[in-house]
Amino acid sequence: MKFGQVLYVFVALLLCVVRAQLASDFMHKTTKDKKLWPKCGGTVQQNCDPCYKAQKSPLCDRMEIQCMKTFCLPLCLELTWACDVEASGCSGWDKCEEFEKEVNSERVKKALCAQFKAEGCSRVVDCCSDENQFLYKWVEGIVYDDYFPTPQLPIPVCMHDARNQTISQQMCDACKNTIKVTLSEMECSDNFPPWPTEHQQPQNMAIFSKNMVDGAKQIPKHKGMEDRCLSVNKKMKTKFEKMKKLFEDKACDCLGCCNAEPTCFYPLTYTMV
């Protein structure tokens, strides 16, 4: 087996290990203090109540934690809103054509949107915790993707001598006048079947009468994935305008076109295994 083939297999195995560890971090490192849980704009409380408030048990707590986690991944990060980046109309810089080509490549757009989605799902609407190592690794995994150990951000065309103020300013201005971010909602019905809410309510509510608790109040508020998806979808949509401006303002820093040291929402450091 040639050296190149060996290296390819090694990198592929390394990525598998990193992604497995990423999933493990997300599934297990969750505080039991509900006050510190991400609220996702109130949608977690509206949808995660597996055993109704009158009853508590270790099983109910685990179900509630699992429900809470779905609001970050897969819902907010992957299944409720889409991101796209486009560079067009660049001028005033001799590398405009190369710049547009690099930014409009799928791998760079994907890397930028990973940064944007992590920011939107954590600090704009708190569906994910920005203090959990999971989110940093999620961004890192997409920015490196199959190109490990070479990240897709910053882009090569923006590598420059920061001491040259003229080139630095031309590059930054051209970038800021070129980058456009588009955010759109995704269809929840494409990924989740309807939740049969009518099955949560007993046909005869009198069966609850002996315990002196109104039967209607004992119907769990716990919702299926489609309802949770719709809640997150609705919440994120209200933030599109704010996020679009935030992301467009930050994009050129992420690309490395406006700072001597590229900075983005989440730092990029690859995981050594």
Give a description of the structure.
The chain has 273 residues and is mostly helical. The protein is 49% helix and 5% strand. The protein has helices spanning 3-28, 43-47, 58-79, 96-103, 106-124, 133-144, 165-176, 225-237, 240-255; strands at 81-87, 179-185. It has a two-stranded antiparallel ribbon with strand order 1-2. It starts with a helix and ends in an 18-residue tail after the last helix. Residues 3-28 have low confidence and may be disordered.
Sheet having the most strands = 2 strands, antiparallel
| Distance between the amino and carboxyl termini | 23 Å
Q: Helical segment tally?
A: 9
Helix content: 40-55%
Instruction: Provide the low-confidence segments as ranges.
Output: 3-28
Backbone structural class: mainly alpha
The succession of helices and strands, N to C, reads: HHHEHHHHEHH
Radius of gyration, in angstroms, nearest whole number: 23 Å
- Average pLDDT, to the nearest integer? 82
Basic shape: elongated
Indicate the proportion of strand residues. Answer: 5-15%
Q: What is the count of β-strands?
A: 2
State the strand order across the main sheet.
1-2
Features:
elongated; 273 residues; two-stranded antiparallel ribbon; mainly alpha; 2 strands
